[in-house]
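Data deposition worksheet. Section B asks for the primary sequence of the deposited chain exactly as it was used as input, without tags or linkers unless they were present during the calculation. Section C holds the resulting structure in token form. Section D is free text for depositor observations; keep each observation to a single sentence. Incomplete worksheets are returned to the depositor.
Section A, Depositor: J.P.
Section B:
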Amino acid sequence: MVNKKTLFFPLLFLCAYCSAQVNSIYQNASFQPYDRYLYNSDNRFHTSVKPYDMTEVNAIVSIDSLYTKECKNKIVNYLLNKDIIHYDAKDFSFSINPSFNFELSQHNGENNEELGWINDRGVFINGNITDKVYFYTAFHEIQSNYSDYRRDRIKELGHNTIPGVSRGKAFGDKGGLDYAYAEGYVSYIPNQYFRFQLGHGKNFIGDGYRSLLLSDNAQNYPYFKLTTNVWNLKYVMMWSQQYYLENGHLGNTRYNERWNVMHYLDWSVTKWLNVAFFETINWGDDTVGTDRGFEFNYINPCVFLRPVEFSIGSPDNCLMGLTGKLTLWKNHVFYGQLVLDEFKFDEFKKHSGWWGSKYGLQAGYKTFDIAGLKNLDFQTEVNYVRPFIYSHFTYSQNYAHAGQALAHPRGANFYESVSFLRYNWKRFFFEAKYEYLVYGRDTAGTNYGGDIFKLYQTRTQEYDNIIGKGGNQERISYKDLNVSYMINPKMNMRLSLGVSNRHVKSQIADEKDQWLFMLGFKTSLDNFYYDF
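Section C:
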């Protein structure tokens, strides 16, 4: 075990296999150097499919052209601009870099005498064989001890589940956790039309900060993805496997498995307009009481899933959705999403709050270079999600993975506004964020549709299910200010300083403002959501 005294001494794992050029990249929410170029309507880029394919991104802009500035001193230039280990040959290249997050935090809550910390050490390796095969792998060994509201969130999720990462085991005697996670992929690009990727990681559909269709909120999962680019169309087909914990779990046995197939077709109608169609099917073993395994009826990538699901007895959970993006004057982007689970138009017209009216809406706006000030960007969005969406009548078919939602982190029965103001000057990054969330939380013995892990037949009422209502309505305001300096753009290595304020007011309590101060030295390669 690594103890707290080693907090700022990284253990770097130097392994000898994986790219000088990463094939896929997922932008950290606070670090989006490509967006102003990719969202420019002249480029006609399919921005709603993430992670981005870097062979497509590099055709528009390279990170080396944005932040790399060569220094005369070779040692300084190596530290600030180069990979730790890099090899480049005619048909093979790879790079190895450390991946870490060392964080100290202090807050003014009940445990304000306790210092919070994260000790995350790892490595990421990427490489390519010719221009057709790309590979990536990463591993993290982590100990952490949250002394703030994030500890409450871990308790809420249960099973020592750390948001977005993994399940942990007890570490130390003050509530610490010890855990690890890994990710990786192999991509094959035979030509300009097709891309095949076998991976263990996350995916995201949408142009917003949140996604109501598929987000990167849950931990990594195995998947196989086929992407087709033809004309102005991008078509993504993905088969993946998740697991669920709601049925219980015996020691030294496998978790209960569930499967998922997803189709997503994005059409760039014009340079300034994109529309897309989304559909996904969830199924698991307990739908028929046996080890059902993979459903081969869903293997065809060129078929509408809903009729197929109905043809086999309609035992599975189907979600459908639409996304859209409208870009005006090249850098004013309006975007949105609609997701449908179950829906009856007759009930919708009655405005009766029928429990089965399960849908969600997103509307957002982002712009770049405000008032002509280069690198000053703004984004705002609203999310509105009805009760009971993403839940099901069997535990295996809620829209989740390992106890965490596959869409919005809050699940269902909420409305939310979240806004960002970002500025970048050379290698300095500034971000201000404000979120306001109204959530209908259940009290003991009730089910008002906010908890997607509850079976929806246990609902408290048939009608009058109003969004944001429940046994205990919570109103959460979250404010965050972060300043960071990027040391090395190759791995997004940075020093960061942040302060956040969280205030929760409900029908039964009014929690005092929680101020949280954080100091970090990290490589910010992934998204982890703490605004809940």
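Section D:
Residues 149-157 form the longest helix (9 residues).
Helices lie at 35-38, 54-57, 63-67, 74-81, 149-157, 305-311, 345-350.
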